Amino acid sequence: MALYYYTAKDSQGNTKSDKLEAASQSDLARILKEQGFYLLSVQELGAEGPKKSFLKKDLSLDALLFWRGVPLVEKLVFVRNLAVTIKAGLSLTRSIDALSEQTTSSKFRSILTNVNADVAKGSTFADSLAKYPREFSDLFVNMVRAGEASGTLEETLVVLYRQLKKDYDLRRKIKGALIYPAVIVGAMVIIGALMMIYVVPSLAQTFRELNVDLPASTRFVIWFAENLGRLWPFLLAGLAAFFLLMRHLIKKTRLGKRTADMILLKAPLFGPLVKKINSARFARTLSSLIESGMPILKALEITSRTLSNIYYQESIAGAQEVVQKGGQLSEVLKQKRNLYLPMVVQMVAIGEETGALASLLKRIAIFFEAEVADSTKNLSTIIEPVLMVVIGAAVGFFAVSMIQPMYSLVGSI
Fold first, then answer.
1. What contacts 78, CB < 8 A, 6 or more positions away?
2. Structural domains counted in the chain
3. Which contiguous run of DSSP H or E holds residue 51?
4. Strands annotated E in 196-355
5. Which residues are CB-neighbours of 265 under 8 A, at least 6 positions away?
6. 81 shares its domain with 213
7. Region 320-331: what's the mean pLDDT?
8. Residue 64 DSSP one-character state
């Protein structure tokens, strides 16, 4: 048996520090858990005081000013392993300390070290995470807060891991589906540039020597090729300025965001995919928050901020106001037929009637996540004909522009 000095917290948020004998730290964690507490920090005491501490010195905040963000996969590994270590009986501070050494991101390691120091000083885990909003979203922080408040942090971390994993898989599938079109477009641009640099000037010189009467399209292609060397810095600068302006309008202005999201919703190819993605994220996030014990109003508020499309954000924010006044979530969704399919409305209505809203929302999420997986799998196949038409039109314009003068020359002989 060894003597330990510990700090623990119960489901009401009350913190206590005391000494207790136990066979090991895991045994200490088990004893406290039976009493309704979970460990925050622990030190083994010897004859001369504490034998060792699992906390490191607080790092300067200057170490956090790195330009790179924390990869989502790093947070996934952290959440999963934190749930495992807490279940194994390690204290929260020791778990964070051990996991901070395993991360490959120096920024994330620094953040975890500072979070650990804050927890050791008496702050809640959620409040410590909330100091880093870029790395830990509202969803992340509030689910941890709900787990701390209910005394079920370990179970909440498991739910949070599943939520982050689904979101990560969704993003990866969408990005993977767009790789093929991006490669094709990039290759087309490179080949076009090489044609303009090496092929067109030679043909233009031949046409001049033969004094051929050139059509307008051919004169434009030759002019563009001959001036490409002088124009390319302006073209690149113009494209960069255009994309930066569009990015600013979409991300920083409400009108730009609404316009872009409306275009995506109405687009023949991407509209159905956008609806499935937002429906899946809405259902998955709300079910996870309700499962973690969060009140429905707070869960709706957080869910609205996790959705990517502003029209879905506004619909859930409006639903929060209606539910607060005693209304039904399904009634609000029913009024947004352009956003939510009848199946979503019916499942939510059944969940509200039976008291199994979280369970049915999870089924909705599973269904739409499967739909998104199928859609993204076929996205490249769907985009391919469109790309072929665009490439064919570009090649056809170039071919007609450069071959037409040759036919005119042959016909005049």
1. 99, 103, 108, 112
2. 3
3. strand 49-52
4. none
5. 271, 274, 275, 309, 311, 338, 339
6. no
7. 90
8. G
pLDDT of residue 411: 61
Q: What is the mean pLDDT of residues 84-110?
A: 86
Calpha distance 67→80 (Å, rounded): 26
Cβ atoms within 10 Å of 6's Cβ, excluding its own: 23
Residue 66 identity (one-letter amino acid): F
Q: How far apart are CA 265 and CA 248, in angstroms?
A: 20
Cα(13)–Cα(333) distance, rounded to whole angstroms? 36
Q: Tell me: the pLDDT tens digits for 30-51?
A: 777 777 776 766 767 654 444 4
Summarised one tens digit per residue, pLDDT across range 155-178 is 888 888 887 888 788 778 777 777
* Longest CA–CA separation in the chain, Å: 110
The β-bridge partners of 52 are 44
- Residue 40's H or E segment, with its range, is strand 37-46
DSSP conformation class of 179 = H
Neighbours of 54 (CB within 10 A): 19
Q: How far apart are CA 87 and CA 26, in angstroms?
A: 9
Cβ atoms of 58 and 114 within 8 Å: the answer is: yes
- pLDDT, residue 284, reads 86
Confidence band of 290 (pLDDT split at 50, 70, 90): confident
* pLDDT beyond 80 at 409: no
Q: Within this chain, do residues 238 and 124 fall inside the same structural domain, yes or no?
A: no
Decide if 269 contacts 382 (C-beta within 8 A).
yes
Claim to verify: residue 153 and residue 7 sit in the same structural domain: no
Model confidence over 98-126: pLDDT tens digits?
888 888 888 888 899 999 888 888 888 98
Distance CA 116, CA 57 (A): 10
Q: Are residues 31 and 78 in the same domain?
A: no
User: Is residue 364 a part of any domain in this protein?
Assistant: yes
Give the CATH number, domain containing residue 230.
1.20.81.30
pTM of the model: 0.63
| Domain span at 14 | 2-52
Q: How far is CA 350 from CA 178, 337, 341, in A?
A: 37, 18, 15
Helices and strands, number each (H, E), in the chain: 16, 4
CA proximity to 92, closest of 151, 22, 164: 151
